[in-house]
Design brief:
By secondary structure, the protein is an alpha/beta fold. It has two domains: 10-273, Alpha/Beta hydrolase fold, catalytic domain (Rossmann fold), CATH 3.40.50.1820; 276-434, Alpha-Beta Plaits (2-Layer Sandwich). Helix content is 36%, strand content 25%. The chain has 14 helices and 16 strands. The strands form two sheets. Strands 1-2-4-3-5-6-7-8 form an eight-stranded mixed beta sheet, with helices on both faces.
Length: 435
Amino acid sequence: MSDLELPETHYAHSGDVNIAYQTMGDGPIDLILVPGIVSHVEFLHEMPGYTSFLRRLAKFGRVIVFDKRGQGLSDHISGAASLEQRMDDVRAIMDELGSTRAALLGFSEGAAMSALFAATYPERVSHLLLFGGFGKARGDEEWVAQRVKAWGSGASINGLNPGQATNPDAVRSFARLERLCASPGTFRDYLLLNINIDVRSILPAIRVPTLALHRRDDATIAIARGRELAGQIPHAKFIEYPGDEHAFWIGDTDALIGDIEEFVVGHRENSTDDLERILATVLFTDIVDSTRSAVEKGDQQWRRLLDSHDQLARRIVEKHRGTLIKSTGDGILATFDGPGRAVRCALALGPASRQMGLPLRAGLHTGEIEIRGDDIGGVAVHAAARVMAQCRSDEVLVSRVVTDLVAGAGLKFAERGSHELKGLPGRWDLFAASA
């Protein structure tokens, strides 16, 4: 399967129920991702970061994802599936694929079922990985009613990816994911069943190698619950990561994927140490109020405007000897080998785009980036995005390191204060650039 192709959906028979699943990669180790409360094996590929996360796992194993019965593309059922039925579904998929033994990666609610599966069928589990998991669920009927009332609105973004909770486009994507995964009634059935989950009594019986993974400020499942889960499993290892995202594919995933690979196969062939690293100035731009403009202009006119904007951006980036990495839908990501040219490019982009009726904001940071084919990664990329998030309309903001590197270049900078940038340590001094 090429980098442009998505995996096909297949079905495994579990009793009278058809379970939708997909595979990516060809081994030698099988890695089964056990979903949280809801999933949709096809639409999840529309969520930024999900497919690339699976592809990186697929470099060292055959990745298997599925929708539990009653959800996504699996057969709908009356009520919610018990943990025992969910275990049957995992066994059915393994049998369909001829997988005698696999590593289980349980996410959120899926961690509890994965733990129970490992304790019940140790001969079929080579490794147990638990991300953002818990041993005992929490909540009551009032809590369930509140969540069901908001279902389909995208409210789940507040826990899965809170950093994008004010991004209307991201909220709409999560709203669609919710509606495709399960109806409000099905979601309610699962919540009512799940608030009674408690697998703590079986955790000491787990005898397979176990790794628990949790983000420090997880907005859905507090890290204390992850530590409690790991603490009750003999010889389990616990690793925490910075960030508040509950979704495993969102945020800084480099260390997470490296730890998964090292735990499952014993080394990190795909470690970021093997990636090409260079020093670059990273530029992110964003069209201000793009959602409102799209609604006002209509889809066709907005699409033409975006195409014109992208062509303009490419010309200006190339004029300043930069590399346009990609269009982000309503902005661009570009890199430069000279911070001065990067700042001047951003200052040129603003007025040119404004003449088209598309006001921009831009953020820049200089640091080490990782080359990943046609894409880039690393902390410097996240930093540039966070700097941009602090921008006002028609403003170019840069980090202090950029101002230090362009001293004497004839550029002017006005202090914009010290800021905490989401997911990054310390406080960052930001400056507004002008020619």
